[in-house]
């Protein structure tokens, strides 16, 4: 019996009842960096809305490094945006020492706006 292309490439089969099913494995990734909240959000977005991109990254073994990179970029953008908006609106350590409640309100507002910017520009695109 002639070998299939899969067998010629070194693939093997497992018998399940009357059927032979190929043993498929994903390629191992070189780096296994942790993926934070931004990377998890982007992964969920890819799974739900960009299935072809998600499948391509997964089967090529580049998904984890891609998501780690997105997570790193998003975290940097978020930190930079919070800092810039706080400076522009005059939210300082003096305000924190003088009126903590007002400082918390303003910082929560700034953080929410920064989250929306990061989501729009990196996560859900």
Automatic annotation (TrEMBL):
Record InterPro entries: TnpV
Protein name, UniProt field: TnpV protein
UniProt source species: Hydrogeniiclostridium mannosilyticum
